[in-house]
Amino acid sequence: MRSHPGLALAYFACVIGITMVVASPVFAGISLAGAALAALAARGRAALPGLGASVVLVVFVTAVNPLFNTAGSTVLLQVFGRPYTAEALLFGAVLAAQLAASLLWFSAAGRALTPEKATYLFGGAAPALSAVLTLVVRLVPAYGRRARAAAEARDAMGCGPASAHGMVGKARAGATVLAALTAWSLEQGVTTADSLAARGFGTGRRTVWGRYRLTVRAGLAMAALVALLALVGVGLAAGAGGAQFLPQFALPAASPLVAAAWAAWAALVIAPTLVGAGEEALWRCSLSTR
Amino acid sequence: MALLALDQVTFTYSGAEAPAIDGVTLAFPPGSYTLIAGLSGCGKTTLLRALKTPLAPAGRWEGAVRCDGVPLAEIPLRDQARRIGFVMQEPDAQIVCDSVEAELAFGLENVGAPREVIGLKVAEMASFFGIQPWLCCRTACLSGGQKQLLNLAAVLALGPEVLVLDEPTSQLDPLAADEFLAAVRRVNRELGVTVVMAEHRLEGTLADADQLAVLEDGRVAAAGEPRAVAAQLCAADSPMAAALPAALRVWAAVEGTGNCAPEAGSLPPLTVREGRAWLGARERGHAAGGAPEGILSSPAAGSGSMGASDAAYAPAPCGGSGSGASGPAALRLRDVWFRYEREAPDVLRGFSLDVRAGSVTALIGANGAGKSTVLRAACGLARPYRGSVEVLGQRLRRRGAAPAAGPVALLPQDPTLLFSRETVREELADGGPDARDAEALSLRTRSVEAASASASAVAEIAALCAIEPLMDVHPLDLSGGERQRVALAKVLLARPRLLLLDEPGKGVDAAFKAELGALLRQVAAQGAAVLIASHDLDFCARWADETALVFDGAVAAAAPPRALFARADFYTTAASRMARGIIPDAVTVEDIVEACRREGE
């Protein structure tokens, strides 16, 4: 990812914020479609399991919502003597789309905002916090590897989790591995603290270094982001994000301003996919010119 | 004036009776290279930590540590971070950042260096140490050697005047360790940085050093010019002598015994090259003086005539060739193929090996050749997709059954993996399946008998591994060698009939290596089969009955160590490289000394 951390942070904060706040079928649907496309463009086939899980989530939340929420005038059927309404079903679908889209956007943000970028952004304001963040990012996978190694080492002696018998035995073997892990991590922590101290951590003002520069390209992207956001904001103020669910479902009238806001939102969420596709095309062109 | 100087420094841990370091006076002039040697627990780490205020342990300090004449405590921490670099043992725990690039910049960020300077320093360090190919990797994906090199580079990015290293290679395999030590040499020679290093491996480093300081129980037993101090150690028959370079040990044993008159003005040799020169000159001198024939052959006859000359002198205590090869096969691998992932390349490619009961077999070979994987296959952790693994006559099944246990035990590279209890005693009580059986038994009937039986077994093994004084210590408070001992005791308590050890000599001092070798021979003498995977050729030559050179997932050559190492030219012991073409078939230091003595008579 070559994007400037500030740009990436601003983009994802806005997209995730709007996705979570605006409960409109149009906004939620566009956001979900954009997030799914971005995941496919970035990860290819590897994105499919995650997208499948999103589909399951959407179907489940949509189907379950009418069981708890019986408001609405269009009764589809009776479940346990309670009405199962089309309005509640639709509202559930919007809710589910918001949820699924937010999750997908969060995972995209996690891919784009690597720990270095996060420390670059927050390191100046809160050095201790950013150091803790970096260490946690490193420690969690390290714990997993160490736990596997310890379990294997004990298995090879015949007292590990794999060779234990019964639930109690397996639980006890697992707890032993956990105990070994805790002692080890404390020991590692002491060394890491020494390493921090030896390299002058916490001896005064810190520089934040990163090989990121605000280029003209990033400035243009920022300007485009601001312009699209402004359009979406004006549209939202004019009621583009509204939707009526009760007593009957209705979308706001598609005035030019509302339609423009929808279009701007669509442009915003499709941007990562387009940038990716554009780079791919450019790559192929530059290859074929050789 | 010395850059760093310790003046009568004494330190006592709070609550401890005896001082950890006692009246140490040492000076490190600018640009010098000092090695601090000593057995585990002699105070090396405490001494080095005194050289940097934020790392100095809490307790009672006396005496003065000065940097350029200024007491160290008066130098601000930020300046100390810049001027004094410190590299510790653990490659992994010292790394703070997730990416290599960020790690290189971390120290400079902390001391508030301008951004342009950081960019330059990161680029410089990456180029100087050849880090560029893995600059964008996650730090978690690096090998141990790469991690430690990164730690060195990250410290040097700050531009220190002094580099302090506390056993930096103890967690590395010998090849990575050599690479790391070569980098330290470059830092000293090409950048003029003062180096102060505690190190067990003197074979490769002593020739680079200007000063050797030997610590014994917190006191400086000897310090000065490396050759002089080393010769002094050998003469005094110090336990540290076993760690000295092979060339020097041979020289000391031959010249020091008085069998032949020491040549006037001759300096003790430190490297293989110097050792060869000395041995060659000695042989020529004897040839001219009409020495008895037959023992020292001409260089050309070197490696060809091993069969005939084998009988010329009785092998030194080195594992008897062929003596243990008669026992039944405890482990039999036949045409084993294995890979870790479906798409990954094969790690074992038609690997076949027999390990006999009552013998010590060593697997040698480079990193990634498949040594550790063979051990994993032998204990059922790695299931081959083709071929068969038979343990004690029983074939391991490919799927279903749990990994083999009981008769097979594996001591992993990192012994700490086996520890989970508060004290060594509890650690041993929580042994393998035997301990569990005893526990189950004691619940039912013969409780007293079973409990006493297991207690006596613990006592016996503790005595064997010499860990009785450590029984009430927390396992993680132990030093590297002590941990290895306790882990070995724990593994032995399961009474394995096939004992597998992965790199057992890693991070332990020379004295313990010899004890370990003797211990393994004892285990084998009791009828167990021992299989070691090791990079330590000298250890294998001294203690193994059989050696197998593993290359590219298969056995490239298998023979008793004497035969294998005598045939090899490069991948062999330092003693063998030194005597090649001068004394045929000499593989260990003892072999060369023996040959020289016979010839002197």
From TrEMBL, chain A:
Domain of life: Bacteria
Keyword Transmembrane helix: yes
Bilayer-spanning residue ranges: 7-40, 46-68, 88-108, 120-140, 214-237, 257-277
Keywords associated with the record: Membrane, Transmembrane, Transmembrane helix
Protein name (record): Cobalt/nickel transport system permease
TrEMBL record, chain B:
Membrane topology note: Peripheral membrane protein
Broad class of the protein's primary localization: membrane
The organism's place on the tree of life at top rank: Bacteria
Single GO cellular component term: ATP-binding cassette (ABC) transporter complex
GO MF annotations, alphabetized: ATP binding; ATP hydrolysis activity; ATPase-coupled transmembrane transporter activity
InterPro entries: AAA+_ATPase, ABC_transporter-like_ATP-bd, ABC_transporter-like_CS, ABC_transpr_CbiO/EcfA_su, ECF_ABC_transporter_ATP-bd, P-loop_NTPase
Localization terms from the record: Cell membrane
Ranges where the ABC transporter domain occurs: 4-242, 331-577
Keywords per UniProt: ATP-binding, Cell membrane, Membrane, Nucleotide-binding, Translocase, Transport
Signal peptide coordinates: none
PANTHER family assigned to the protein according to its UniProt record, in alphabetical order: ENERGY-COUPLING FACTOR TRANSPORTER ATP-BINDING PROTEIN ECFA2, HEAVY METAL TRANSPORTER
Family classification: Belongs to the ABC transporter superfamily.
Protein name: ABC transporter domain-containing protein
Lineage: Bacteria, Bacillati, Actinomycetota, Coriobacteriia, Eggerthellales
